[in-house]
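Entry for DLL complex. Fields follow.
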Amino acid sequence: MERYYQEEIECAAPEKIRGIQDEKLVAQVKHVWDNVPYYRKKMEEKGVTPDDIKSVDDLHKLPFLSKYDLRDAYPYGLLGVPLKDCVRIHSTSGTTGKRVVAFYTQGDIDLWEDCCARAITAAGGTKEDVCHVSYGYGLFTGGLGLHGGSQKAGCLTVPVSSGNTERQIMFIRDLQATILCCTPSYAAYLGESMKEMGMGPDDIPLKAGIFGAEAWSEEMRHDIEKTLGIKAYDIYGLTELSGPGVAFECSAQNGMHINEDHFIAEIIDPDTEEVLPDGSQGELVFTAIDKKAFPMMRYRTRDICTLHREKCSCGRTFIKMEKPKGRTDDMLIIRGVNVFPSQIETVLLENGYQANYQIIVDRVNNTDTLDVHVEMTPEMFTDDITEINKRQADLVKGMLSMLGIKAKVTLVAPKSITRSEGKAVRVIDNRKI
Ligand code: DLL
């Protein structure tokens, strides 16, 4: 039986949701115009005033915001309320440039936690469940976001945060955790560690996992589901828009419902900035229509994605986004060809490997090189050179057909690639361009 946290809105008629969006958008544009001089200036430069925005149909008239604006306005330039009305900040996990700092009023946190509670409830979470949260707590939004959502959904919430994998497995077993929240790469690592400890899916009571914060493939989902004996659900979000819970997966497990009563999604061509119709692949852009402290208007996420507005078997009417295919800024251009780490991952998982790999890009004599280091699984580990060469050649062939360019593949010993407790670091680009 499908469970909902706020059924009347999650399953509302599309016209009703559209009406809510129209009303909230008009009010939000006014809020921003009156309170965020940085964005007002952008609107003035584009010749738009709040009077021009009467419904979602007018959204395209508004200027975009991007990470550059956030850095420009760092730290307080995009605040929509006096600082004294804010009760929390979070910050991005990005490693380049200035960190993005996002602000929250108590109302913003409430809505954010509702979004996470919708995700947990859709994954089957109830008062009867124990929810083990291994996303990092702190500036990263994963821990506290899912924590708040889990409490609102009524689960007994275990705020483990990241680290100390053996202790995590012990808690999952001893406290009878039924729901696990962490990054997909950490879920895979927990599974690996359990195997090493001589434990299998029957030794833990988990039934569902809510995994996001990084791209993961369908193949990785199947692997995790098998190793942990659970159903694995995707969850999407970003700090700028509050954190996890902007979109979440339901029992259909084929795309994430966007919480459209709080966020309006668009897909644009990242080069021309033209809005594309549903079903087209492009850059995902969000307008947050409820958030007061950090009101993001037409925020360019850099995530490459496709939206679908078809009826879903779960009964929810919110539009669905596919798993993001990658980011415009993690897309590698190698010898002129666009390469996404997710494509390489798909080839590896299709060939029986796990998502333990590192992509090393360099430029030698003016030519780009693509090296992929891939861990053998313990089951396939061998020092037979003929066997290793054959396996490497198979992967080179698979990647050539997926990417259209030749990669060099090096198989390495199990567990030799550093594991991450948060988002995995998959790409090392040594080119000085
Ligand atoms: O990663 C928020 C989050 C925490 C989401 C926990 C889900 C679970 P940031 O650190 O600001 O926020 O990173 C946001 O991560 O623009 C995407 O590129 C990527 N991302 C987030 N969720 C997914 C997902 C959090 N399910 C950036 N699939 C986003 C693919 C994801 N990429």
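NOTE: The longest strand covers residues 299-308.
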